[in-house]
Design a protein that fits this description.
Length: 191
């Protein structure tokens, strides 16, 4: 898959290293001259289900020279975000997550979805990189004017509603909390 986003994180790094696959779906990771004891690689492409691999105790000859990722074509899920009165909420952030564990231990690519969409003026959202089976999906919905909401399948949402893009997530009105932070002596702490 050309132009897939590849993110790598090596033990000791403070942020992900970003790469893109070439026209043959290949990229090379430069570990900057040292061999870390841990490397995480995440691959994502529009319309495909992302994958993640964790490589532990990577030392010299144990470092795999090639990791093969086979991304499955994604399916679509979606719905609408509303307030308690049923009015659509524009600008809500809907994060869809799924992090499967590899069946044969670490060092095997497994499904990893972390897709964030923003609702439109009708409160609608859709994501196209979801595995066909849909098990274990989790959703976190946030908006500055409302309380955050976390939803999971099958407890809170039905797969058939998500597939038909008619799943409804209701956000409660937000609550303003004010207060003052002090030390043990009651002196206010700034910042």
């Amino acid at each position: 898959i050309a132009n897939a986003a590849v993110k790598a994180f090596a033990f000791g790094d403070t942020e992900y290293r970003h790469h893109t696959t070439d026209e043959k779906g290949v990229t090379a990771l430069d570990l900057a001259g040292s061999t870390p004891e841990y490397v995480r690689v995440r691959v994502a492409a529009a319309g495909y289900v992302g994958q993640n691999v964790e490589l532990w105790e990577v030392r010299g000859s144990s470092l795999p020279r090639t990791v093969q990722f086979s991304l499955e074509k994604g399916t679509v899920v979606g719905g609408v975000v509303q307030d308690p009165s049923g009015r659509p909420i524009q600008g809500a952030s809907v994060e869809t997550r799924l992090n499967e564990q590899p069946l044969q231990g670490f060092e095997q690519p497994c499904v990893f979805v972390a897709d964030t969409q923003t609702t439109d003026e009708q409160g609608r959202w859709r994501s196209d990189g979801i595995p066909a089976r849909g098990d274990g999906l989790q959703f976190e919905v946030t908006h500055p004017g409302f309380a955050d909401r976390q939803r999971a399948m099958p407890r809170d949402l039905k797969l058939e509603d998500l597939r038909a893009e008619r799943a409804v997530i209701v956000l409660s009105e937000g609550l303003t909390v004010t207060g003052r932070v002090t030390d043990a002596m009651g002196t206010p702490i700034a910042g």
